[in-house]
Write a structure and sequence with these properties.
The chain contains 10 helices and 4 strands. The protein has a 4-stranded mixed β-sheet, with helices on both faces. It has 2 domains: 81 residues, no CATH class; 125 residues, no CATH class. The chain has 242 residues and is of the alpha+beta class. It is 45% helix and 10% strand. The chain starts with 5 loop residues before the first strand and ends with a helix.
């Protein structure tokens, strides 16, 4: 196999390696995407003997992404561009053009992700119903959740990892609503000092500050909703012109 072109992105101090393989055409099924991702990862993981590789797939044309396997096209595109120099790269930066961020899409996706992180807690029944329902119900569940009362996020799930993931989504979303793009833990911690202990997985962190910013997220979402054109997730490339 020819060495695949890939690019590392994200936080400079990440415990794992987040990277994207650039491919000519995106496979049609999830199984095909997963299989190709694993095949390409196996080919290069010798370069990262002590880290877990989190791989994604993307199609890049004319200096920007046009389709991605995981995440949204705009966020991954700009993250690749802005965090390129934070990592030792094997190939030149494949991204020359930044994409306009779709803030509504970010809030829709973050809402689902945060609920998914909490789907194995005592709120599991309400959350599973909300994930199948409309945005209003998702928002209502988020508003009613008390993170301080959650002692476990499920069997074999690391407590600090979940808090970190929630904090990351909150920081990214709230800052994007303010017109600022953040793509690393350090950037988010600098803008939101109260989220720092969660981002860096500090032991015995209570959830008081995380709860505060979750409520801020819900408040912003409530403000954005009247002007939103769609209330369920969609592909960035479906409604945004390149």
């Amino acid at each position: 196999m020819k060495t695949p072109i890939y690019q590392i992105f994200g936080s400079e101090n990440s415990l794992d390696v987040d990277l994207v393989f650039f491919i000519e055409k995106m496979p049609e099924t999830i199984l095909e995407k997963l299989s190709l991702s694993k095949e390409l990862t196996d080919f290069i993981k010798i370069n990262f003997p002590e880290k877990v590789v989190n791989a994604n797939l993307a199609v890049c044309k004319n200096g920007h992404l046009t389709e991605v396997y995981k995440g949204t096209t705009d966020e991954l595109n700009n993250s690749l561009f802005y965090t390129y120099d934070f990592h030792q790269q094997q190939f030149k930066n494949q991204i020359d053009i930044l994409l306009k961020r779709d803030v509504d899409l970010k809030f829709l996706r973050s809402s689902r992700m945060i609920l998914s992180f909490l789907s194995k807690t005592e709120y599991r029944v309400e959350i599973k119903n909300a994930l199948k329902s409309n945005l209003n119900e998702k928002m209502q569940i988020l508003e009613n959740i008390d993170l301080n009362k959650i002692s476990s996020f499920g069997k074999n799930t690391n407590y600090q990892d979940v808090l970190k993931s929630i904090a990351f989504q909150l920081g990214q979303s709230i800052s994007l609503d303010e017109g600022k793009e953040l793509y690393t833990k350090n950037q988010i911690a600098e803008s939101f000092p109260e989220l720092k202990k969660y981002l860096f997985r500090e032991e015995k962190s209570d959830c008081e500050n995380l709860e505060k910013w979750l409520m801020k997220f819900v408040e912003i979402l409530q403000t954005r909703m009247p002007k939103m054109q769609r209330f369920s997730e969609y592909k960035y490339e479906e409604i945004n012109k390149f």
